[in-house]
Structure formats: C-alpha cells, structure tokens
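Exercise 7. Given the encoded structure of a 327-residue chain, write a plausible sequence.
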C-alpha cells in the first residue's frame, strides 16, 4: 500500500484539521495557548469544545493538571513551532492517556523527522513555496484516505488567493512601489473569508506540487540565512541554533520589551523589510495564560526564506542593531 493512500489533500491546513475532527467525531480539542485565531474560529457554534493547555516562554508544553483532564478520544494538537521538531516524549505521554495526537507541521514543511510520536500529521506547503492553496493531512496509523472526496474550493475565494500570490510575486521582483502591497490586503481578505467547510486542494496547486519543488535548495538557503541571523542577533533568538534537519519558517526573535520589539518592527518596515508578529493572540487565548501573553508582546519573526541571501540578512542585522544598540 503506497503512502499516498494515507494522504488527504485539502485547500488549507485548517480545513484538514476540521475534516479530521468531524471524521473522528471528536468532542474536545486541546490546543496550545499560543496560536492563530483561524485555527479554532471554525469550532464556534459547533458541538465541540476547545480547551487550551499551557506553554512556557519557549513554546514548550507545560506539564500539569491539564494532562489529567484529558479523556480518551480527545484530540490534542501539538505543534512543530516555526520549523522546530516537537519535544520528544510529549506525543507518547498523550497517547498513553488515550488522546488522539495531531501534529501541526504547518510551519515545518521542509523539516525532517516529524510525526514520530503522533497519530496524524498536517502540513501547509503554501507557507514555504509558490502554491496558491493546499493542506496535507497524513494518517500515521495506516488509515486509508483514498475514498474521501471533497468539494472544489469556492471560485471567489480561490481567485482572491491567486491574485494575492501573483501580486506577491510581482512585489518580490520589482520591490515596494506604489500599489505593490495590495497583495497583502487581498491575502488578508482571503484568509478572513476562508470557507467554513473542508474543500479539496485546487487542481492548479496539486499539479504544481506534483511537478516537484526544489526542496533541498530552498532548505539550504533558509538554513544558511538563519545561521547568519543567529550569528548576528543570537541574544534575541528564541530557540537558538537549528538542529540537524530543521528548516526554519523564519528567525524567531524575542526582544526585551514590547517597546523595543515595536521599534524594531517599525524600523524594518520603513526600510521595506516586513517581519511578522506570530500571532496576535489577545482575545483568542485567555488572559490567564501569562507566559503566552508575555511572549506575544515581545516576539517578532524575521524573514530568512529562500528569496534572500547573505546581503539581505546582513542588512536586516544592521537595521535591528540600529534600535537594540540604542535601547
């Protein structure tokens, strides 16, 4: 039996998770107290409940009472944060308590050695490569998924995504000119209006993935760029150096205060470099998870993907130092 029989291709990662929850008739979903609202918005008004579990200021799961509250059949989402592997032992501990373990590798498309202690694995290739849509759900317990057929993604939504991706490509090629950042608004609009039902991956993106992507080259560039940033900004690195086989989504920085973080972000944007705050969690994660909110007030993800090289990384370091050395 080929591995493709254990794979379901959906329009996005959240659709994969939604499908799995419905497929397994899960009633309770445990999620880390640090995540994007889009991962759980769809649960509202459904016969499900979302419970948060605590993470520390390095995004590691904090063992505690929540583990004793897990019931057999609960789904627990664990995350390969920003391309880093999940901590060993967590998945096994959860499965020993009867939980179904879903490993979210949306931020780790190129990282090797994932899913070793999980039941299911979900990817989001469009965070790393030039595909318009796509979520990849893999059963790691041998369940065949070939008989499940999903509807095509809505044309109005997919068209907006396509326009955003095309606009982003033009932006990367010609730079920040008047109107060139309209792609960003299109992308936000598409994400906001993503369909609530689970759709299949588009034929366009499926063919693009089947043609093959230069994974090794992309991975090597990301790793090299991350190493340069680590060398120049290591005291701000949330996770430290990459382990062998880990490929980063970005260079995740933790600054000493919200004010310094915001000043760095503003200075980079003025210089046409666009870091991300992953993710705004106020109003999503309950206030009682203080470590999560502390982290969210200081975190910033610096760009280090395959579009850039040593010159851009050194320029980023210099701009960050403009602010941090004066703080």
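Solution.
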């Amino acid at each position: 039996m080929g591995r493709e029989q254990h794979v379901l291709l959906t329009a996005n990662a959240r659709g994969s998770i939604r499908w799995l929850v419905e497929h397994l008739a899960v009633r309770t979903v445990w999620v880390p107290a640090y995540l994007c609202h889009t991962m759980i918005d769809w649960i509202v008004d459904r016969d499900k409940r979302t419970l948060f579990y605590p993470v520390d200021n390095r995004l590691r799961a904090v063992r505690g009472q929540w583990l004793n509250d897990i019931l057999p059949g609960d789904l627990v989402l664990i995350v390969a944060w920003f391309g880093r592997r999940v901590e060993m032992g967590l998945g096994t501990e959860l499965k020993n308590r009867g939980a179904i373990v879903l490993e979210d590798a949306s931020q780790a498309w190129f990282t090797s050695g994932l899913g070793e202690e999980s039941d299911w694995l979900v990817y989001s290739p469009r965070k790393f490569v030039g595909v318009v849509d796509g979520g990849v759900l893999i059963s790691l317990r041998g369940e065949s998924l070939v008989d499940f057929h999903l509807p095509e993604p809505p044309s109005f939504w997919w068209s907006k995504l396509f326009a955003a991706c095309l606009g982003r490509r033009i932006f990367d090629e010609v730079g920040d000119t008047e109107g060139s950042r309209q792609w960003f608004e299109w992308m936000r609009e598409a994400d906001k209006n993503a369909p609530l039902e689970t759709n299949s991956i588009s034929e366009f993106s499926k063919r693009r993935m089947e043609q093959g992507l230069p994974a090794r080259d992309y991975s090597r560039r990301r790793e090299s760029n991350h190493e340069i940033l680590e060398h120049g900004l290591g005291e701000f690195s949330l996770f430290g150096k990459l382990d062998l086989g880990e490929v980063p989504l970005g260079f995740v920085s933790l600054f000493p205060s919200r004010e310094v973080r915001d000043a760095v972000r503003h200075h980079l944007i003025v210089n046409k470099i666009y870091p991300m705050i992953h993710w705004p969690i106020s109003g999503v994660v309950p206030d009682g998870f203080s470590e999560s909110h502390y982290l969210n007030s200081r975190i910033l993800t610096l760009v280090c993907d395959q579009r850039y090289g040593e010159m851009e990384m050194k320029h980023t370091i210099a701009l960050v130092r403009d602010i941090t050395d004066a703080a």
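Remark. The chain has three domains: 3-139, 155-194, 215-324. Students should compare their own answers with the one above.
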